[in-house]
Amino acid sequence: MLETLGIHFPSLAIYLVNFLLVLLLLYLFAYKPILRLMDQRAERIRESLDAAEKAREDAASSQEAIQEQITEARREGQRIMDQTREAAERFRTEEMDKARQEAEAFVQRARADIQRERDFALEDVRASFGDLAITAAERVIRRSLDRTAHEELINQVLEEGESLRRG
Amino acid sequence: MGSGTGKYIALGLIIVMALAIAGLITGAIGAGLTQSEEAKAAGETAEGPFIPKPEVHLPAQVVFPTSDRDHYRDFLEAEKAEKKYGEASLTHDQEELVEEGPYQGSNFIITNTILSSFIASIVLVLLFVLGARKAALVPGRFQNFVEIAIEGLLNFVEAVVGRQHSRLIFPVIATIFLFVVVNAWIGLLPIYPSLGFKAGDAIQIHLLRPAGTDINMPLALALVSFIFVEWLGLKMLGLSYITKFIRIGSLKEGLKALFQMRFLDAFQGLLDFFFVGPLEAFSELVRLISFTFRLFGNMTAGEILVLVSAFLVPFIATVGVYGLELLVGFIQALIFSGLTLVFAAIAITAHHGESHSEQH
Q1: Do residue B17 and residue B160 come from a single domain?
Q2: Which residues pair with B62 in a beta bridge?
Q3: A26 touches chain B (CB under 8 A)
């Protein structure tokens, strides 16, 4: 019956060997190297993608760092400028105070000098005035006056001179 | 530019029309219209002037060694005489030849299909080995082609059995696909019907014939597929694979149920053991037959269709049939490898019966 169907065992065996040989040759010289290569390529692509991703992240983070540095520097610069301005302001007010004080001290001293000079002058005037009064009195009255009356008269004149000095 | 293309299309159409008319006139259809009344009455087949009536020899023909080829030719003659004149009018030698059959004993013979299969194998191996020989990470054109083929097949395998087992199953599936498709397509080369050994006017024994038209080739592939699937099942599931066919678990459950007078469960268990198990085994064996005859039938029908279309309407009808045959070769390869793949996927999946009996 198998013969009638055309089944011929030697032919069958030849086909089997033929197919298995093709399988073996293709497996050894085509599938294996090509599949290994494709795996390698997939691996390589995956690595490259990972590296690219990492580089991108690095760039982003360094960009951030640079931005931060710039902000920091700007803040620092602002701070320094503020400080400088403040110092300048302080220096200015200090100098102005000092100048004012000096001027005031100078005025004070000048006023004191003037007072002193006036006192001296008044003292001078008083001394000269007393002498002058006595001399004038002596000249007017000459000898007849007693001592007590004399004194009283002088003091009166002096009193008037004192009030004069005070006024 | 547009009018230039239009010109070429018109020219092509004219050529196709001319060929179609020439084919209709010179082919068997045209000959039939001009056939004389007597010939029609005698029931003779009309033949065109170029293409003789094709003789389709279903079994593979012996081409080497020479003595076997002579024996085969004599056998063909004897068989023809037997058909024409009946058994009684055969000579003694002819009777002996018919008795012996086409193949002298079971010597080592090369049939035209085996020769074709060798050539197809050499072409296939050369194509792929050369493509993979200088395999580089950045592929050239030729390597690219081979890679596309292999990657496509690998994706096909992965889609069915998943990544885990794909590398184990892939080589056999891919080789089945490539072997079938190359054997089918190589048979469409015009040298196939035109090379052969003449007896009288016509070529009696062809030197080459597509290997798929020899039933031994599909049978060999079906055996490979069958053995591969069973081996895979045993390798992946171990001895539990056999319990798919010999359902000892169900037998035990059934006997236990019988002992406890639970007749419905007993019936179910025994049915599972005595009927479902053998049915599973039978279905595995039936695959052999369906695999064999599906490929054999398609390839043989294709071969006959090419011959008949060339006989009926030469020059033009064969073109369409060739396109169809390219498709059929591809689809048959896909079906053969795809079914093997699916059966392999079924074989490596733990079957239901075992988990079913464990639930009790």
Answers
A1: no
A2: B111
A3: yes
B152 and B266 share one domain:
yes
Each residue of B265-322: pLDDT tens digit? 888 888 889 999 999 999 999 999 999 999 999 999 998 998 888 888 888 888 899 9
ipTM surpasses cut 0.90: no
Judged by CB atoms within 8 Å, which residues 57-96 of B form the interface with A?
Answer: 58-60
| CA-wise closest residue to B315 among B15, B57, B33 | B15
Last residue of a domain, one of B50, B69, B84: B50
In tens, the pLDDT along A52-62 reads 999 999 999 99
Size of interface A-B (CB pairs under 8 A): 115
Judge whether B342 lies within some domain. yes
Query: What's the mean per-residue pLDDT of chain B?
Result: 85
Is the pLDDT score of A143 beyond 60?
A: no
- Residue among B53, B80, B224 at smallest CA distance from A24: B224
Does B93 score more than 90 pLDDT?
A: no
Domain enclosing residue B25, as ranges: 1-50
Q: Is residue B262 part of a domain?
A: yes
Residues B213 and B332 in one domain: yes
Tell me which residue in A3, A11, A38 faces B147 most closely, judged by beta carbons: A38
Q: Is B199 helix (H, G, I), strand (E, B) or coil?
A: strand
SS (H, E, C) B69-100: HHHHHHHHHHHHHHHHHCHHHCCHHHHHHHHH
The pLDDT value recorded for residue B131 is: 85
Overall number of domains in chain B: 2
Nearest CB to B125; choose among A10, A25, A38 = A25
